[in-house]
Write a structure and sequence with these properties.
Helices cover 17% and strands 26% of the residues. It is of the alpha+beta class and 338 residues long. The chain has two domains: 82 residues, Immunoglobulin-like, CATH 2.60.40.1080; 220 residues, paralog of FGE (formylglycine-generating enzyme). The protein has a four-stranded mixed beta sheet, with no helix packed on it. β8 and β9 form a beta hairpin.
């Protein structure tokens, strides 16, 4: 009996030692969201993941740096008043941290004078690029490949001078005397991102430039664009675009015919910045592509302008510009929101 009891003790110690040896020290912690937009009095749950999976201690502590704006209890964030707060989660073991910036607004329907009117674009798969005979396809528009996109919203019009002034307090446009409903131009890619950052801070929303794929999909009419038009909304350029053959300056947004989604001026008026770096197309199919991973070079512009030939106003036409380019009355932009 003594030997049996001693054996049981040894087995228990051995099993415990093996179990404990499988547990690891905490090396980090992550949150499922790094930013969060909430309406006053609403709640959302943050999920913390302690690394590694077999960590010896997965207990965490939650803290808000501005509890008057947002509180947190076991990962449940409650919006209190308009403003910003940072929610931090900290592991008991190793003191590792992760954080989420919370922006609280009065209502999701709150609008600012700088915000665009948006059109919903249902996700889908389309052929990106150009290989249609008679469509003046260029080498940089090939190879045509299948691209799948999630749903998003895009500006019904190009961002106007009035919207720019409402956010930035100035008007850099060459055609600045034309009116607030004319597209803003003479803005570099970097200056556009200053506008977007300020607009997002003012609204608590997350606007950004479209990817090149999102831009072309919307210009082609999304899942309503089965006509494979040469230009956005039709095959007759004068019906849908202000270009070098019919205009001597930019024009008020929305004067020409809209495309199948009800979006205006995606061909002509002003070229539009996209978020991607410029590079030749890959051959493989892609899902939600964001362009090449580069740190310098040119950025994509799409749609052609009032100073361009009709060739450049085709839905497949690509242009590349330095992100520092200003002093250009042909370039503007429109926004997207997911």
């Amino acid at each position: 009996m003594k030997r049996t009891g001693l054996s049981l003790i040894l087995i228990t110690v051995l099993v415990t030692s093996v179990f404990m040896s499988c547990k690891k020290s905490v090396t980090g912690v992550t949150l499922d969201k790094t930013t969060l937009n909430l309406v006053v009095n609403s709640t959302e749950t943050l999920t913390a993941t302690v690394i590694p999976d077999n960590a010896s201690n997965k207990n965490v502590k939650w803290q808000s740096d501005n509890s008057s704006v947002a509180t947190v209890n076991n990962g449940i964030v409650t919006a209190k008043t308009v403003g910003k707060a940072t929610i931090t989660v900290t592991t008991e073991d190793g003191n590792k941290t992760a954080s989420c910036i919370v922006t609280v607004i009065t209502s999701q329907t709150t609008t600012h004078l700088g915000e665009p009117e948006l059109v919903s674009v249902e996700g889908g798969t389309f052929s990106m690029g150009c290989d249609t005979p008679g469509y003046d396809c260029m080498s940089e528009e090939k190879p045509v490949r299948q691209v799948t996109l999630s749903s998003f919203k895009i500006g019904k019009y190009e961002v106007t001078q009035g919207q720019w002034k409402a956010v930035m307090g100035n008007n850099p446009s060459y055609n600045s005397q034309a009116g607030d409903d004319y597209p803003v131009e003479n803005v570099s890619w970097d200056e556009v991102h200053d506008f977007i950052k300020k607009l997002n801070n003012l609204t608590g929303k997350q606007y950004h430039l479209p990817t090149e794929a999102e831009w072309e999909y919307a210009a082609r009419g999304g899942n309503k664009g089965g006509n494979n038009y040469k230009y956005s909304g039709g095959n007759t350029v004068n019906d849908v675009a202000w270009h070098g053959g019919n205009s001597g300056s930019s024009r008020s947004v929305g004067e020409k015919k809209a495309n199948e989604l009800g979006i205006y001026d995606m061909s002509g008026n002003v070229k539009e910045w996209c978020s991607d770096w410029y590079a030749l197309y890959p051959a493989n199919a892609e899902t939600n592509p964001t362009g090449p991973s580069l740190s310098s070079g040119n950025r994509i512009c799409r749609g052609g302008s009032w100073g361009d030939p009709a060739l450049n106003c085709r839905v497949a036409a690509r242009a590349a510009e330095s992100p520092y380019t200003s002093g250009n009355e042909f370039i503007g932009f429109r926004l997207v929101h997911h």
